[in-house]
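Students often ask why inverse folding is considered easier than folding. One informal answer: many sequences map to the same fold, so there is more than one right answer. In these notes we will look at a single instance of the problem. The structure comes first.
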């Protein structure tokens, strides 16, 4: 596996590349790299930044959002999947290119495919009873704490 050009760590969720294909583990390492060209002039940079940001957000939060349906009744799984479909619709041109139009095109296509796979994971997702019970308990404790604070502070 490739490693970050700056710190040599294995890139994880927040990985990114520049328009030369140099790999970084984070925005910080990307910013620290002295030999990077100006990516802001690249025609795909805005789409790359958008899909990368949304990908990171979905991967960090999709399970919490799915548990919210069980705890609060909203958002529903179907609504979440519709939101993701709507967002991915903006990138169908890249889907057709299959990443063959340069580094950012390949990265955007990679994120599109990852988010398509996330839809499959979400479709088949089922709440874990132990995790659900822990979340319910935490929710009740938070409500209790807020109620006590409200009684104290008025």
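Output (designed amino acids):
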């Amino acid at each position: 596996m490739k490693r970050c050009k700056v710190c040599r760590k294995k890139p994880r969720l927040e990985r990114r590349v520049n328009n030369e294909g140099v790999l970084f583990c984070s925005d910080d390492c990307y910013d620290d790299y002295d030999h990077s060209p100006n990516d802001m002039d690249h025609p795909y940079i805005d789409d790359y930044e958008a899909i990368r940001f949304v990908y990171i957000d979905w991967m960090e939060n999709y399970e919490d959002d799915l548990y919210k349906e069980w705890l609060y009744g909203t958002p529903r799984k179907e609504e979440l999947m519709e939101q993701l479909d709507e967002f991915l619709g903006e990138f169908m041109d890249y889907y057709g290119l299959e990443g063959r139009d340069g580094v950012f095109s390949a990265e955007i296509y990679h994120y599109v495919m990852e988010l398509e796979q996330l839809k499959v994971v979400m479709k088949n997702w089922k709440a874990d009873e132990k995790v659900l019970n822990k979340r319910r308990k935490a929710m009740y404790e938070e409500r209790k704490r807020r109620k006590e604070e409200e009684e104290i502070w008025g």
